[in-house]
Specification:
Elements (H helix, E strand, L loop, with lengths): L19 H27 L8 H29 L7
Length: about 90
């Protein structure tokens, strides 16, 4: 019987930039950046001279929210895939 070249029990190697720790750190940093963007929107609305530049912090906030959503989806997928694996008794 030939040996299997790709056994099922082999763990998937996750790159360092896709690890759980890095995802959580990125989420925390993006939350701080989103607070900074909201402060920028607030300041640019208060000053008449800067009202035409409100788009800069608005774009920053939109991009930050997109990154937060993608990281959260990535973490949720990782935790749901771990818990959905059936138990195999040998």
């Amino acid at each position: 019987m030939p040996s299997d070249k790709n056994p099922v029990f082999r763990k998937v190697i996750i790159p360092w930039y896709n690890s759980t720790t890095v995802c959580i750190i990125v989420l925390i940093i993006m939350l701080l950046v989103s607070f900074f963007a909201m402060a920028g929107i607030s300041v640019s609305r208060e000053n008449f001279e800067y009202q035409k530049y409100v788009w800069v912090p608005a774009v920053l906030l939109a991009l930050t929210i997109a990154i937060i959503i993608t990281m959260a989806v990535r973490l949720v997928k990782r935790y749901t895939q771990k818990s959905n694996k059936p138990f195999k008794a040998h």
